[in-house]
Amino acid sequence: MSTVNIEGGSALSNGTTDHESSSTSTSLQLKHNMKSLVVKYWILLMNAALSAIGYVGGPLLLRLYFIYGGKRKWIPALLVTAGFPVLLIPISINYHFHRRNPLGSSAGKFFISWKLLLTATAIGLLNGIDNFMYAIGLSFLPVSTSSIVYSTYLIFIAFFALLIIRQSFTPYSVNSVVLMTLGSILLGIRQNGDRPPGVSGGQYLLGFLMTIGAAALLGLINPCTELAFTKAAKNITYSSVLQFQFFNGLIASLFCIVGMIINKDFAAMSREATEFGLGESKYYAVLVIAAVVCQMSFLGSVGMVFCSSALASGVFGAMLLPLGTVGGAIVYHEKFSGEKGISLAMCLWGFASYFYGSYRDTKKQITDSQICI
Fold it and tell me: Where, subcellularly, is it found (predicted)?
């Protein structure tokens, strides 16, 4: 029979009251939530770093292929996702720790479900198409202009996120989208004079339209990825994200490999390597390094969708792409006009606005959790 405590709570067998037990449980839950939040932000920071390297370095390396004599379109399209085998390293490490963890679930539950695998396959096909369109655009446009046009994918992400996943917008996120969109449009002003040598007006227009199309397709892919993660919320972990990304990259790469076979690109690679402006060995070095760097942006983007949202990933990527404009001006001596400088400032301002709004929302959530205690 339980005794009644003076404070009104019944005493438990270990001497604590039910109120104390409830308070302890709530406190432990809060600590667990805080720990999960810290881990989540560290993963988010890691993926942001990967995105930064990939978004800035990837276009520069792919453009290097075209500048020094590369003429194929399927080869750079393949490079965007060809680095997917490196994901086997972190997947294997995670699987090793999963097997050694006696408190973990069965080993079979480590792998993603068939439903998520099929979704990764479908999105991989879309990524393959997107990569090919982007490669065509980059073959006819300078890095600075290509980055400008491609950063408009933020508009499409905002549209599809609202349509597909009912993304909620705050004044900060709206301000961010508007600023970064205006910045991208401003960068497109008076860019007719930056047409690369040997590129006709028709090719330049084709490159512009293909890049816009690739931006629109990417704007669809990111919200679809977030929707897939949301549907699998009970079983999704970062290991699942790595597996999802592996199959995503595998399917996109297979799509591009089929295109290379049809276009006889494999047979032409040896001849193209001997004619490459930097030399045959550096030709293959450029391809390998570009594949690894592009995979960083690919993995980082999906990781940010997992940790935050498709819109957050889009805002961060759109902020990074104008840095490619600066990189193109420095590395390839492309024009850096006053419009590009103003646009870069607007994109950074827009990113700061979104980041501050996200910080306020997170702080409010933590405060509300503490009040509930």
Answer: Membrane
| 313: helix, strand or coil | helix
Q: What is the mean pLDDT of residues 317-323?
A: 69
Can you tell me the distance from the alpha carbon of 253 to that of 49, in angstroms, rounded to the nearest whole number?
Answer: 24
Instruction: pLDDT band for 107, please (50, 70, 90 cuts).
Output: very low
What is the CB neighbour count within 10 angstroms for residue 355? 16
CA–CA dist 310, 219 (Å, integer): 9
DSSP labels, 280-307: HHHHHHHHHHHHHHHHHHHHHHHHHHHH
Residue in 325, 304, 327, 326 with CA at minimum distance from that of residue 314: 304
- Contacts with 360 (C-beta within 8 Å, 6 or more apart), sequence order: 172
How far is 194 from 335, CA to CA, in rounded Å?
Answer: 7
Distances (CA, A) of 79 to 56, 84, 118, 292: 15, 10, 23, 8
Rounded CA-CA distance 249/253 in Å is 6
Q: Which residue type does 46 have?
A: M
Cα gap 282→276, rounded to integer Å? 8
Q: What is the 3-state secondary structure (H, E, C) of 143-189?
A: HHHHHHHHCCHHHHHHHHHHHHCCCCCCHHHHHHHHHHHHHHHHHCC
Determine contact, residues 76/62, Cβ cutoff 8 Å.
Answer: yes
- Mark 157-167 as b/e (b = at least 16 C-beta within 10 Å): bbbbbeeebeb
Residues with Cβ within 8 Å of residue 142, at least 6 apart in sequence: 63, 194, 196, 328, 332, 334
Closest alpha carbon to 148 in 160, 163, 137: 137
Contact by Cβ (8 Å): 259, 84: no
